[in-house]
Amino acid sequence: MGVTIKDVAQAANVSVASVSRVLNGHSTVTDDTRARILAVMKALRYVPHVGARSLSTNLTDTVGVLLPDLYGEYFSEMIRGIDGAARRRGLHLLVASLHGGADEAATALRTMRGRVDGLLVMSPHADAAFLADNLPGQLPVVLLNSGAGGGAYASVSIDNFSAAYAMVGHLAASGHRSIGFITGPAGNFEAQERLRGYRAALAAFLPRAREAVYEGDFTEEAGTRVGTALARRKRRPGAVFAANDMMAIGAQLALQAAGVDVPGDIALAGFDDIPVARYVTPALTTVRVPIAEMGALALGRLAAQIAAGAHGGHGAAADTLDAHLVVRASSGQRAPVPSNRIPITGDRQ
């Protein structure tokens, strides 16, 4: 039989209640007593019984994470940030991906019931009504990059519109007079905001230019399809801005494979600044999104709600993180327009 909480209490010369308070993080235990109990637990190699602790505290020390996908560097970075913040707090993750439609998302949410203390959700289906229909009202929830935040549920996101607007401004300032855009998936809030930023910037900076919008879905394969199609055309836009880096890289590789020079024949830019963006040749101009930091902040906000016994539905706050341009070789530079016409900020790398 393993070491029990009673063994720890006896060895530390304290009550079982004192050991329990230390395990549950209560502040009513003195620092000296807490240190002594922790030292005894370490010496005895005591492992708390998670099931028993869950019964006594009504907590599982587990948070759910629902993402549209788990494949690719963007989601790897997001999970890295969430996991690091969770481990620092002694929390575990239950992760699921949502490849299907609203029915699959609803099933995933309902599956999490009773298994987690709170949820981080990134889903195009996660508006307030959808969450209310599929989750207990008292469950803490934080949304990631969702248009549903700032009202019923807490959210962490970036200003996708302004970042896309700035990118088109940079391309126009670099002398490109025709700028295409590869979209993200239909119904995705981030993709919609980036497309909106592209259109607004095109109207502001190049009012005589025509839109050139190509359908994408945030995958490298979508970028490859667009790049392959552009390589066959005699008339191409001078620059193409993809709604994420994976599509930009797919387009870049397809264009180069067909003998089209980047950025000499066509300039490219992406969005996210995933780690591989700096290693392709030429390195990719992009919008730097603090992906891991966003995940860590969302986990912190969720942990605070759990600790306070808070939940969605009470005008929760929306955190908006800064994103900024990272100018690299792929966007090229032709005869620039006067810089006072286009406000551009960002890093050159």
TrEMBL record:
Cited Pfam families: LacI, Peripla_BP_3
PROSITE patterns tied to this protein: HTH_LACI_1, HTH_LACI_2
Gene3D superfamilies for the chain: 3.40.50.2300, lambda repressor-like DNA-binding domains (1.10.260.40)
Key words, A-Z: DNA-binding, Repressor, Transcription, Transcription regulation
Domain of life: Bacteria
HTH lacI-type domain: residues covered: 3-57
SUPFAM superfamilies per record: lambda repressor-like DNA-binding domains, Periplasmic binding protein-like I
SMART domains: HTH_LACI
InterPro entries tied to this protein: HTH_LacI (IPR000843), LacI/GalR-like_sensor (IPR046335), Lambda_DNA-bd_dom_sf (IPR010982), Peripla_BP_I (IPR028082)
GO terms, molecular function: DNA-binding transcription factor activity; transcription cis-regulatory region binding
Protein name: LacI family transcriptional regulator
Lineage per the UniProt record: Bacteria, Pseudomonadati, Pseudomonadota, Betaproteobacteria, Burkholderiales
